[in-house]
């Protein structure tokens, strides 16, 4: 089974930075819109018609 380098890179980056992002989002003294920034960053590439995603 072959894993594409781009997908592997994204998975490694998510694994490395997930604790930092989780602490940043769950910080109670932060702004209320922080979880929505993460949500928008995840949803936006899926709506890009130039980037064909085939599953």
Which regions are unreliable across 5 or more consecutive residues at pLDDT < 50? none
The overall pLDDT, averaged over residues, is 77
CA-atom Rg in angstroms:
14 Å
Distance between the termini: 16 Å
Share in β-strands: under 5%
Please provide the ordered H/E string of secondary-structure elements.
HH
Q: Look at the helices and sheets and give the structural class.
A: mainly alpha
| Helix residue percentage | 55-70%
> What's the number of extended β-strand segments?
0
Sheet with the most strands?
A: none
Description:
The protein contains 2 helices and no strands. The longest helix is centred in the first third of the chain and has 21 residues, at 5-25. With 55 residues, the chain is mainly alpha-helical. It has helices spanning 5-25, 34-43.
Write a brief caption for the model:
This protein has helices at residues 5-25, 34-43.
Could you give the topology of this structure?
Blueprint: H1 5-25, H2 34-43
Keywords for this structure?
2 helices, mainly alpha, 55 residues
